[in-house]
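To illustrate the input format used throughout this study, we show a single complete record. The first block contains the structure-token representation of the backbone; no residue identities are included at this stage. The design step must infer an amino acid for every position from geometry alone.
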């Protein structure tokens, strides 16, 4: 393992949200999350737990309007934290492909920590809402994260009849793929690209 600490602390303040995020890529899966949206907190906690990231997220958003700005801006801020924590990406695995089931639901995430932001999503959610969380915001969170972390990210809801299960499988497959792709490969001392940088 590199001696370099792969951590970040990122803040974002707009007329819609005030957000503070800290991230340790080489953590134990510990998290403290408070976005004001119970199900979203649950998903971010799962992201940390299954990705073995230490994560804090605090967001004060305009939830009197809806959940959109909170979820989008947390995705943006967390994406910036990933990019900062990864630094020059020296020695990382770079690619990962994970499928995760949750009962009847199955989600898939393929990621390239490429420095070239690109997002593709395929699939539908079986219900429009999960508590105070709009199901499609799971897709938008993944997109905001990918575009701000510099990821090429392909995500898919493969199967499911329950939106809670579908979104949770998506977050867990995202966590496992990010954990795999951002790990340091002890065999590699350079950046994993023929260009010499990502």
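Output of the design step:
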């Amino acid at each position: 393992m590199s001696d370099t600490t792969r951590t970040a602390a990122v803040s974002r303040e707009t007329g819609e949200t005030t957000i503070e995020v800290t991230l340790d890529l080489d953590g134990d899966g510990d998290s403290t999350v408070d976005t004001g949206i119970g199900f979203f907190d649950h998903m971010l906690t799962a992201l940390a737990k299954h990705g073995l990231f230490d994560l804090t997220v605090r967001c004060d958003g305009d939830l009197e309007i809806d959940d959109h700005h909170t979820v989008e801006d947390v995705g943006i801020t967390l994406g910036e934290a990933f990019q900062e924590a990864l630094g020059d990406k020296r020695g990382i695995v770079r690619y990962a492909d994970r499928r995760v089931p949750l009962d009847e639901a199955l989600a898939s995430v393929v990621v390239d920590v490429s420095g070239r932001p690109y997002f593709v999503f395929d699939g539908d959610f079986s219900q429009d809402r999960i508590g105070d969380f709009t199901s499609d915001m799971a897709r938008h969170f993944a997109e905001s994260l990918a575009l701000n972390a510099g990821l090429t990210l392909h995500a898919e809801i493969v199967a499911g009849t329950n939106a809670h299960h579908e979104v949770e499988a998506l977050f867990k497959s995202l966590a496992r793929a990010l954990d795999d792709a951002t790990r340091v490969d002890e065999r590699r001392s350079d950046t994993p690209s023929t260009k010499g940088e990502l």
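Structural context for interpreting the output: The mean pLDDT is 96. The helical segments are 38-51, 68-86, 137-149, 163-182.
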